[in-house]
Design a protein that fits this description.
The chain is α+β, with helices and mostly antiparallel strands and about 350 residues long. The protein has helices spanning about 5-20, 30-40, 55-65, 75-85, 135-140, 155-160, 170-185, 200-215, 240-250, 265-270, 330-355, and strands at about 45-55, 85-90, 105-115, 115-125, 125-130, 165-170, 220-225, 230-235, 275-285, 285-295, 305-315, 325. Strand 3 (about 105-115) and strand 4 form a beta hairpin. The chain is globular and about 60 Å long. It starts with a helix and ends with a helix.
Length: about 350
């Protein structure tokens, strides 16, 4: 469902936002303003991001039908995605440009639908907190899912989590499990090798090449907005920009992390070459919002409103929720599989009764 339109959305946002972050077009004041705005983000100790689609359910269903998957998007799912919102807030002891894992003091991530919060997790101190609302998700999408009340008591902490209650797991335990999984994937059970990264010389060469592509293919314009804001518009032919950017990246493919497969020239021929515009909103020189208009990429005359919007603000301090139940990670995993197993057994029992 809606795979190609959403993929185009994600790629266009990364490319156009990245064009500014790369230091785009040094000889244009608009590019310099964006460069400075992104530079300010790196000096912050606290940031929040909110991502959503500026569209409606009817448009999403039209895009999904156009993708030709053979499956129609349910009305509930279209309502969910048109009203969905992903919120992220993070804090660090150091400016983000200078931060690594040990410097982050808190993080909160929340996925919400039209009717409220559906999933949330927070990293505070030594713990990571989780909760979900499966009932709300099922009602919103129309997709039947087992509720917490339908799961056996043996599902334990997992049952609490999907019923909207907070559970917490030691963050160190999560990191340990992640490391163990990476070791299992390593050759002959050995230590996973460090992910390759381009050396300083290669990075410098790549950035220079990307800036030249952006300077050549992206048009920047500025305009005054309401309430003392300023808008910088970046417009580019979508396929042309992608093709030239990947042509510059491809020689360094061996130095990129494993799994970072690059699309071929043949793959990119399928991308529309219509122009895409990103609207960057600045207030006092700071970035507050990015809106990428993707209606042209839909290649559907009925799609007039389809944009991805990213809002940027000051991050709120992540707090530990009261009353969270502490559990071990293996308890959550075990509870999940027991719940799934019970659900399958129940369905099989119903099926056998019906046949009898």
């Amino acid at each position: 469902m809606i795979r190609k339109p959403l993929l185009a959305t994600a790629v266009a946002t990364v490319v156009l936002a990245g064009s500014a972050a790369c230091g785009a077009v040094e000889n244009l004041s608009a590019g310099q303003k964006l460069d400075r705005a992104f530079g300010k983000l790196g000096k912050e100790h606290s940031l929040s991001f909110e991502l959503d689609l500026d569209t409606d359910a009817k448009t999403l269903k039209a895009l999904d039908a156009e993708a030709g998957t053979g499956e129609e998007m349910p009305d509930g799912a279209a309502e969910l995605f048109s009203g969905a919102r992903l919120s992220v807030s993070m804090q660090s002891k150091k400016p983000f440009d200078d931060s690594d894992d040990k410097d982050f003091t808190g993080m909160a991530v929340k996925f919400s639908g039209p009717g409220g919060d559906l999933f949330e997790y927070r990293v505070v101190g030594e713990y990571t907190y989780f909760r979900a609302d499966v009932d709300a998700f099922a009602k919103t999408t129309g997709v039947p899912l087992p509720s917490a009340g339908e799961l056996p008591e043996s599902a334990g902490a997992f049952k609490k989590m999907i019923d909207g209650e907070w559970v917490k797991v030691a963050t160190e335990e999560l990191k340990k499990t992640r490391d163990e999984m990476e070791e299992m994937r390593a050759p002959e059970g050995g230590k996973p090798s460090a992910e390759p990264t381009p050396d300083a010389k290669a990075q410098k060469k790549l950035m220079k090449a990307l800036r030249e592509v952006i300077a050549r293919e992206v048009d920047f314009k500025t305009s005054e907005g309401e309430g003392g804001t300023e808008h910088v518009m970046a417009t580019t032919p979508f396929r042309t920009l992608l093709t030239e950017l990947f042509d510059e990246i491809r020689p360094l493919a061996e130095e990129l992390p494993p799994g970072a497969g690059l699309p071929t020239a043949e793959d990119l021929k399928e991308a529309p070459d219509k122009k895409v515009t990103a609207d960057f909103t600045l207030r006092n020189g700071a970035l507050t919002e990015v809106s990428v208009d993707l209606a042209e990429l839909a290649e559907n005359a009925n799609v007039r409103k389809f944009a991805l919007v990213l809002r940027v603000g000051k991050g709120e301090k992540a707090t530990a929720p009261a009353g969270a139940t502490e559990v071990k990670l293996d308890e959550l995993v075990e509870g999940f599989f027991q719940g799934v197993s019970e659900e399958i057994s129940t369905e099989e029992g119903f099926s056998e009764t019906a046949q009898g």
